[in-house]
Amino acid sequence: MVLLGTEVKSTRLGRVNLKDSYARIKNGEVFVYQMHISVYPFAYYGNHDPLRIRKLLLHKYEISKLYGKVNEKGFSLVPLKLYFQNGKVKLTLALARGKRQYDKRESIRRRDEQRDLERSKKEH
């Protein structure tokens, strides 16, 4: 993973949020989007943009494998875990399939029921 110095220091402090982040393959390279690494609090100048697009360092055969899966079968690349190994920041990626239409309807129905329950609690 290609990071700036303040990003590495902030990562060591555990100030990373992988929620809503995803990866894409563009021009034979893999990039991570929407991964939030907080600003390093002890830097005087030269701090980084928290939602900057970050490049992943992968071998060509790994990228070609992922590219085939993502394009053919409709999978998405989702970051699961960020950790340090031998002084380098590593990111675990997963191939994930999106929800089907009937799954979405069920989730919407559950959310609406939960909202109705909350409303009825407030009224009493």
Indicate the topology.
Blueprint: H1 5-12, E1 16-17, E2 22-26, E3 29-33, E4 36-37, E5 54-56, H2 60-73, E6 75-85, E7 88-97, H3 101-123
Antiparallel strand pairs: 1-4, 2-3, 3-5, 6-7
CATH architecture assignment name? Beta Barrel
- Global morphology: flat
Q: What would you give as the CATH superfamily?
A: Small protein B
Helix coverage percent: 25-40%
Provide structural commentary.
- The chain is of the alpha+beta class and 124 residues long.
- The chain has one domain (5-97): Small protein B (Small Protein B, Chain: A), CATH 2.40.280.
- The protein contains three helices and seven strands.
- The chain has helices at 5-12, 60-73, 101-123; strands at residues 16-17, 22-26, 29-33, 36-37, 54-56, 75-85, 88-97.
Summarize the structure.
The protein is α+β, with helices and mostly antiparallel strands and 124 residues long.
List descriptors.
124 residues, alpha+beta, Small Protein B, Chain: A, three-stranded antiparallel beta sheet, two-stranded antiparallel sheet, 3 helices, 7 strands, 31% strand, flat
